[in-house]
Amino acid sequence: MSFKALNISSREIKLKITVFWIFLFFCGVNTAQEPSVGELRQKITTLRSQKKQVNKDTIYIGLLMDLGAKLRYLNPDSLLLLSSEAQKLSSNIDYKKGVSEALFHLGTYYSDIGEHSIAIDNYEMALINAKKDNNYDLTLRIGNELANENVYSGNYSTALLGYLENIKLAQSSGNKKMESILYENVADLYAAQKDYDQALYFYNKVEKINIKIGNDINSAQTMSNVASIYAETGDFQNALFKINRSIKIFEEGKAWDWLAYAYEVKGKVYLKQKQYTRALYWYDKSVELHESLQDDRGIIDLYNGMAEANFGLEKDSISHNYAMMAYEISSTIKSMEGMKKCSNTLYKVYKNQENYAAALKYHEIFRQISDTLSRDENKMSMTMLKTEISHKNQQEALVLKNEKALAKQRLYIYVAILFIIIMGAIAFLVVRGQKILKKLNRELESQKEDLEQREAELWETNNTKNKLFSIIAHDLRGPIGALEGLLKLLNSGDIKESEFKEFIPKLKNDVNSISFTLNNLLTWGQSQMREATTDPANVDLNALVENNINLLSELAFTKMITMDNLIVNKAIIWSDENQMDIVIRNLLSNALKFTPNNGHITIGYVDRPDYLEVFVKDNGIGMDEYVQEQILAKNTNITTYGTNNEKGTGLGLSLCSEMVIKNGGTLWVKSEINEGSTFYFTVPKGKKQFQKSA
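Given the sequence above, the corresponding structure tokens read:
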């Protein structure tokens, strides 16, 4: 609408109202509009037919304004005419609420056509009347639209201050719906400055409030705006998720104006992804809805988006047409942001067509508007910062004012402190109880470990008992039984004394074997039962070896085996003499057992820095790697027969290994089949003893 059409005289208004009513009541508006419009028309018709003086009826005035609001995007002139009539009737009967609402709707009309100063004047007059009438809900609605109009005018600081003041009023009056709308407008304000992080912060607050309100349409409106932000930031997945949910809600709720916006946002998402065909599909769906809506401000981005999509598809002429339409609408309603976007699109189109004069023209317009907005935005940012500080200062002043009121609540504070003390005492008891419980759990865990350890010890003791019984059954019962049988034969006279004497060498060997076996068994049993103690002292290794060679010399003589002792007299070791005696005796006995007749055994040592490495070497039958691993494994008792079928206890090497370990050394073997075996063990060197001076 041109500027001249805005200066309407009272006579022209009356004429237009008359024409409008003739059109409304005789042509039937409801046939082309929503049912709600038809219902309002019917109510107005009913009142006019029932009452002669409807001009003084507040219900009738309210219906006029409701009908005007419904026709805002369908027939903007109807909004102007109905609101003007409602204002006149309300003023005649001093109906303050009617005056405020009528001025509010007039401000909306002038805002839609881009006459920002006239819109602000109407909003400010409406706000004064609403405050006088103490109508908080209407005050919030007017205050919100007044702040919006300041945004359109570029006065961001005033707009932000208005939003913040109205948010405070909405919170104090418990109007959650307006609180949500106001926070969303603050978010839009930051989005206009491309401060998307701050915008999303406020949108998040709006979404939380919308959940409490439980209105799906409100939630869908917010999701649409958030989707637009995501499209700008490149988060296309979240943008599509939000806008698809919004579209479904708008379609079900028949919110056509918001549905048109949602279609446009979805087209924008695809445009940002350079999916131009998909973008145009959704832009076209938005255009279909806009055909029944007269929303100039909302259609600017739609037409410009269609221009950009067609430009991407190299359809320059179509792109030019949409960009030019958007530019003309932006110029009409004085939308600087719209003119900026459209002039940039026109610049690209003309440049692509090599029409450099026109391209330069719109490039200059684009640069001029961009520079203006850039300078204004810098100033606005500073102003907004000052506004926020001012708002915080006002809040601090309010806090100081409220401190006096807080003094009356000290009693409640004392009660709260007492409650905290009681809760603290309860917490102390709970913590103390938990500590006691943890202590009991630790004690139970310790007792459990002790029981498990005792169980393991009992298992080992029982295993040792079984081994002892097995050895006694197999290795002692045989020789003793043979001796017992021979004595019975002698006693019964079945053999003569001379014949008995022939068995004496064998009996002697059996008794020696039994003695040796019993000695090993007792030592083994004590070790397994953990009764044997190690008492180390300086011991002459040579003397130990000589004693055991003499002890086993008769057995060596019977097999014609020579035993060489290479250990010198000064080889002193630090060990338990009895335990080391058992080690040497068993190793020598083992060597004699597996060395054939006319064999050779050597005993010697290698002097290391801290210990002696003793070896017992034979040229016997040797053993493979598997047998070597088994004979030194823990808890094994392998029994094999010697070269002359000598039977052992199976405990010798295990016993040797344990004795060596108890004396701080290790035992190992090197052997090859038919090449003999060499057993090594280490033992600490003897300690030097110094005589005390007199």
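The chain is about 75% helix and 5% strand. Try to locate this feature in the token string yourself.
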